[in-house]
Amino acid sequence: QDGETGFLYKQGDYINLATKIENAINNWEKSKEIIEKAYNHALENYSIEKCANKVNEVYEKVLKENKKCIK
Distance of alpha carbon 50 from its chain centroid, rounded? Predict the structure, then answer.
């Protein structure tokens, strides 16, 4: 989320990117808060276990759907 857990810019818009970088540098205290939120968000949502479980769910769904097609 832009300004909450990171900084988003318009793809290909180098001026927008430069502005985001400049704002991050000039507002370092706010940037540190965003970095901490991003780190915590990643820990909560993207652990190895959670990602592996999501991949496993996809495999199970595909296998279940293929069994229906074969019968």
Answer: 13
Tokens standing for 8?
């988003």
Query: What are the percentages of helix, strand and coil residues in the chain, rounded to 5?
Result: 75, 5, 20
- 42 phi and psi, to 5 degrees? -65, -45
| Tokens describing residue 54 | 């999501």
Q: Taking the model in full, what pTM does it have?
A: 0.62
Cα dist from 22 to 10, 13, 25, 63, whole Å:
15, 14, 5, 49
Closest listed residue to residue 5, CA positions, set 49, 52, 65, 46: 46
pLDDT at 71 over 60: no
pLDDT digits (tens, 9 = 90+) for 1-60: 998 999 999 999 999 999 999 999 999 999 999 999 999 999 888 888 889 999 999 999
